[in-house]
Amino acid sequence: MNATLKAIIILVVALTIKYARCKSNLRNQLTSTQGPAQDSSSFFQIRLPEISIPPISTNLGNYKDYEGGRNGGGWDNGKVELSSYSFVPSLLNAVYLFSALCFILCLTGLNNHKTSKRGNVLGFIGIVAAIVVTFSQVGFGFRYELFFIIVIPAISIGLFIAHHVSMVQMPQLVALFHSFVGLAALFVGFSKYHSEYFESYEMSTIHLVELYLGTFIGAITFIGSLVAAGKLSGTLDSKSLNLKIKKVINMVCIIIIIILGYYFVQLKSIYLKTLFLYVSFLVDSFLGFHLVASIGAADMPVVISALNSYSGFATAISGFLLHNNLLIISGSLIGSSGAILSYIMCIGMNRDIFNIILGGWDDYDELGGGSLQQAEANKRVNSTTHKYVAENLINARNVVIVPGYGTAVSKCQRELAEICIILKSRNVQVNFAIHPVAGRMPGHLNVLLAEANVPYNIVKEMNEINSSIDKADIVLVVGANDIVNPSSLDPSSKIYGMPIIEVWKSKQVIILKRSLNTGYSAIDNPLFYFANSYMLFGDAKHSTNQILTILSDYTSHKYPDVSLSDAHLDDEKAEVRSLCFLSEDSSASIREDLEALAEQYPKARRVIGLVKEDTGGTQKGEAKNGDEKGENTKEGAEAESSTPRSADVNLSIVPITPKFVPKLKKMGFRILVEKDIGTKIMIEDEEYVNYGAEITSKEDVLRQSNIILKVDPPSEKFIVEVPNNTVLISYLWPSINKELLQIAVQNKEKNNITYMAIDEVPRSTRAQKIDIRSSMSNLQGYRAVIEAFFMLPMFSKSSTTAAGTIHPAKVFVIGAGVAGLQAIITAKSMGSIVYSHDSKASTEEEVKSCGGIFIKIPSSTYREKNELAKDEEKMREDFLNIQSKIFKRVISKCDILICSASVPGKASPKLVTTEMIKLMKRGSVAVDLCTEFGDKQSGWGGNIQCSQSNKNIIINGVHVLGRDKIERNMPLQASDLFSMNMINLLDEMGGGLQFTVDTNNDIVKALVVVKDGKILYSPDRSMDKLVKSESVFLTDQSEDNQLVSKKTIKYPTGTRITEKFIESDLLFYISLICALMVTLLTGTIFSQSDLHHLFLFTLSIIVGYFCVWSVTPSLHTPLMSVTNALSGVIIIGSMIEYGSGFKSLSSVLSMIATFLSAVNLSGGFYVTKRMLDMFIK
Question: What CATH code would you report for 386-530?
Answer without folding.
Answer: 3.40.50.1220
